[in-house]
Each structure stands twice: as structure tokens, then as C-alpha cells.
Design brief:
With 193 residues, the chain is of the alpha+beta class. The chain contains five helices and seven strands. The protein folds into two domains: 47 residues, no CATH class; 137 residues, no CATH class. The longest helix has 36 residues.
Length: 193
């Protein structure tokens, strides 16, 4: 008699939290943020930036790093809201700049003119950011899937038991898994480790 099967003997949490990453210098961290957040690439009429002091603090303080990433993710939404607000007041948002600084400060500079509508340069910039967000989401999803597959491969194993009868197999199973095993009708096993 032979029983074999696969089981996952470890539950591994491989969440790729960016707040836990360590960077060796401000330039490396800045490059990472620019790669992740399209809004840090300036357009003709719109830009988002982070001061060097905040970058240094965010590198060393997990809470500050998490705040910065949340705010950078929302920056395009802030600009869209400003654009809609200008339109609602019969104006056009012509230029916008957001700077994130030390002590969780944010400075925004906007130029608004008469005449409702949107500025084509800001629209193009926002569209590029949306495209980059979608690409980033797809890349993150692909990476997460790859990590999950690797984790499963690393933690999964096959165990085979051979014995003269069901009692012998049951004893081997119990000793190997040190879990709860129930014999179900029809000779099936229910194993919970």
C-alpha cells in the first residue's frame, strides 16, 4: 500500500512592502520613487517633487516613507480635483506644482486663467500617469504571482509512505505531520497540520 501527495509545510508571507526596503543613498531612493510614481516625472504644465530633506527622512523612517508613498500615489488625484474645481468656477488650470517637504508639509503653486476648460498639457500629463499606474499595477501583479509560485515551489514537498497496511501508514503519517488526521468514509484522509 502506498500514499503520496504534496503539502505546504510552511505558510510564508512574502509581502513586498516597499516601506521595509533599505536604500544606500538618496539618489537610489529617489530613482525608486520616480520609477514607481509617474507623477515625479514633470510635464510642461504640471510637476510633483520631493525635497532632499524629506527623502533622507523617508529613507530612515518607515512611517515617513509610508506617508510619502501614500501622498505621491494621490498627487495626480489632487491635480485632477484642482482642475475640476477651476472648471466649476469658469476657469482653466494652466499650471500646477506640488512639493512635498520636511515635517509632512506640502506646498502647491497653481496658475488659473479665465475661460472654463482643461489645459491640454495637464491632460496629457495626467493620462501618462494613469497609463504608468496601470503598467505598475500589472507589473506588481506579475511579480506577486511569481513570488507566490516561487514560495509554493520552495515550501511544497512530496512525502511518500509505504507500509504493510492502513494502520502502519496511519502511524507514519501521524509521526511525520504531527497534525490532526481523520479517517473519512471511503478510506480518505483529512489532514490538518
Amino acid at each position: 500500500m502506498r500514499i503520496s501527495g504534496s503539502y505546504n509545510h510552511n505558510n510564508v508571507n512574502n509581502s513586498g512592502s516597499t516601506a521595509n526596503r533599505k536604500y544606500s543613498n538618496v539618489k537610489e531612493y529617489s530613482n525608486y520613487l520616480t520609477q514607481k510614481f509617474g507623477c515625479l516625472t514633470p510635464g510642461k504644465s504640471a510637476s510633483v517633487s520631493v525635497t532632499g530633506g524629506l527623502l533622507r527622512k523617508a529613507m530612515s523612517d518607515e512611517k515617513t516613507g509610508a506617508w510619502l508613498e501614500r501622498e505621491l500615489a494621490k498627487a495626480p488625484d489632487y491635480i485632477e480635483a484642482a482642475q475640476k474645481s477651476a472648471i466649476a468656477h469658469g476657469s482653466t488650470l494652466k499650471s500646477v506644482s506640488i512639493e512635498f517637504g520636511e515635517e509632512y508639509s506640502t506646498m502647491t503653486t497653481v496658475v488659473v486663467t479665465d475661460g472654463g476648460g482643461t489645459d491640454s498639457e495637464i491632460d496629457k500629463w495626467l493620462e501618462k500617469i494613469k497609463e504608468k499606474r496601470e503598467e505598475q499595477k500589472a507589473a506588481d501583479k506579475k511579480l506577486e504571482k511569481k513570488k507566490a509560485e516561487q514560495s509554493l515551489e520552495e515550501t511544497s514537498s512530496t512525502t511518500e509512505f509505504r507500509g504493510k497496511d492502513l494502520e502502519d501508514l496511519t502511524n507514519q503519517f501521524t509521526m511525520k505531520l504531527a497534525g490532526t488526521m481523520t479517517l473519512l468514509s471511503g478510506g480518505a484522509f483529512d489532514i490538518r497540520a
